[in-house]
Protein: 2-methoxy-6-polyprenyl-1,4-benzoquinol methylase, mitochondrial
Amino acid sequence: THFGFETVTEAEKRERVAGVFTSVAESYDRMNDLMSFGWHRIWKDHFVSSLNPGFFPLTSSPDPRTAPQHILDIAGGTGDIAFRMLHTAHVINQNPNVSVTISDINPAMLSVGKQRAQSQLPASQQAVLNFVEANAENLTSTKPLGASPDAPTQKIPDESVDLYTVAFGIRNFSNIPAALREAHRVLKPGGIFACLEFSKADKYPLFNEIYKRWSFGAIPLIGQLVAGDRDSYQYLVESIERFPSQEEFRDMIVDAGFVVGGKGYEDLTGGVAAIHKGMKP
Ligand code: SAM
Structure:
């Protein structure tokens, strides 16, 4: 297909990814449900509860239950992870001192997220939610959503983040090692990098076969029928195929300077998705 990314430059890839997400922004949430049978919600719920934002024992603050925590949700799109983080922190853990910056390279996705926040979140949660335009590979040059093109850029400072999350975003990056280096830079020592991403289900050959047929056959078709956009969804399926295995990606996280526990990842639904975590020592 014309999305054969092997031969294109980083800049070209970035432009195509921008095109894909601009064209899917409006239909993105509905399509996620259709393509994964709603499963992405279960994965996201599990991802967020496994991180348990708001309960933050690794802190010098006198009371871990109300310790301030700053979460940076990278490639946050329309807000699914950020909203769950705020709910868990503020409502379940009763810790109002948790703030979330939701950042994405694509202002169209962020705008949908901002509208959703305004209609779905209580004012107290909206007050601690920031929307920032940023390329994950370079967090030294970001902009608040909606800032004028000539507004000065802002650097996310070194060692300013307690928890860095990226869900279904990293496989779209042109330069994953650069993004991991930036994650390492902005995290405080003791801070956590956490990634939820499609992965390899090849530990179960029969299941894998069915899954591959579904994704290569049905997803571009659903994209065409529901969103009128076959190419973007074809790209999404191919980007999953190209993404490294659980073990390869774990090794990249370690190479960026993180420490991982155990094997360094958790498979979800037989490896259709996986969670990787690392701590900045
Ligand atoms: N995290 C959200 C979720 O789980 O619903 C959104 C995931 S969406 C599949 C992927 C997002 O990655 C898109 O919003 C896209 O704009 C963003 N993205 C792609 N390349 C990026 C980059 N280099 N830096 C930051 N965000 C990027």
Summary: The chain is about 45% helix and 20% strand. The beta strands are 69-74, 98-104, 129-135, 138-144, 161-167, 187-198, 265-268, 273-279.
